[in-house]
Sequence to fold (134 residues):
Amino acid sequence: MNYSAMQPASHATLFYDGRCPLCLKEMQRLEEIKDTRLRLQDIHALPAGADLPDRDTLLRTLHLQLPDGSLLTGLDANVAAWQYTRYGAWWRWLRWPLIGPLASMVYTAWARWRYRRLYPSPCSNDKDSCDAPD
Fold:
């Protein structure tokens, strides 16, 4: 994906787990430095009937919905989200051909560990079914 060529005509939305302390800290930092074309959405505060993957899927890895409606996941979503800040170029190296596959493996392993630690039993679309600490 060519992140430097991203010129969204509208808003992109990054879906994050607001019950994950590390995730929340990163989103607070991102909120301070992002431009207005990026919205941050806590998965636990999603309105009912949103046309998105189910809550459990969203909680397992980061999702970024681009203005055209397409979804990026995992490290691609993270790198793309940071392109809406002045630090975007510093994140692009994570997608370089020799580094990208290894960075994706590390991110995927971390995301699985994080999900299993916070949600020992799978979440459903029911807001109260996710047992992570508030």
